[in-house]
Design goal:
This protein is of the alpha+beta class and 328 residues long. The chain is built from 10 helices and 12 strands. It folds into 2 domains: 92 residues, Ribosomal Protein S8, Chain: A, domain 1; 220 residues, Cyclic phosphodiesterase (Cyclic Phosphodiesterase, Chain: A, Alpha-Beta Complex). The protein has a 4-stranded antiparallel sheet with strand order 1-2-4-3, with helices on one face. Strands 6-5-11-12 form a 4-stranded antiparallel sheet, with helices on one face. The protein starts with 10 loop residues before the first helix and ends with a strand. GO terms for molecular function: RNA binding. This is Activating signal cointegrator 1 complex subunit 1.
Amino acid sequence: PGFRSEPLPGPSDCADEPCDAFVVEETDKGFQCRVEVPSPLYKYIIGKKGETKKRIETETRTSISIPKPGLEGEIVITGQQRGGVISARTRIDVLLDSFRKKQPFTHFLSFALNQPVVQEKFLQFKEEVLEKCSQDHGVSSSLFQNPAKLHLTLGTLVLLNEQEIQRACDLLQQCKEDFVDQITGGKPLSVEVAGVEYMNDDPAMMDVLYAKVHMKDGSDKLQVIADQLVEKFVASGLMLREWDRVKLHATVMNTLFRKDPSGAEERSSTVSGKSSFKERESFNGRNILKLFENFSFGEVQLDAVLLSQRYSSDASGYYGTAGRLLLH
């Protein structure tokens, strides 16, 4: 029942769950299987009034024990029949997978672009846009990014407990050894933040305006590092793929900031709040594009990929950092 009898993957494949092969142990009472589940997901296995858990137990003739809410631990499935235990485990995996995909993301991989010179140029940009384009529909100061939070996003993650955060940190270190040091030669990346672009179809109805980022030496090192990091994180199951290549851009204006200046800054395809889109009031960015297509936000040395925590701030005003990969 939903169990593949293929050769077991080697240790390298198994290092980062999720892994097809799970261990069913024989005990004196029958069989059992343990599954590590972050505590925020327990409620989906339990279901309303315990219905989901009861249904799985009844249909697979197993008993499922779940730690108390908020306590990190393992869910243990026990049963007389090995097949029943496997079947219950498979159903739990499917449930967890679908609910994990619906969780709003908690962390993202970023490069900080909030160095003083860039913050200064950004504030100048904001002032000039408000001066020259404030007549344009929807343009107002509440649209602008918080200068202390200027960043490049490489990809978003759902990390639901300390163990998962630790796995992401370990994977960052592995990426450093596997390919990052080789690409950077142990030096920070010199980039320029310059020019603006948008991603939707009609510049008269913009929701987000981005600053572009490119390597000073004209190479594609930054792109290659970004793509390979995302590749690794997607393969490990820690990140959901959003597009083929990482789009290197820094948000400077976003209509979501109107509603939630504290941090709706990260778009995520997984947020299912349709209502929030209705409330977005787009702005006419035609003039901004014309007037600022070559605006330079300054040059920056990128020296670390950060595992940033959404909706958080550190002492500098940037996002809280849960882990980092140093480029030098």
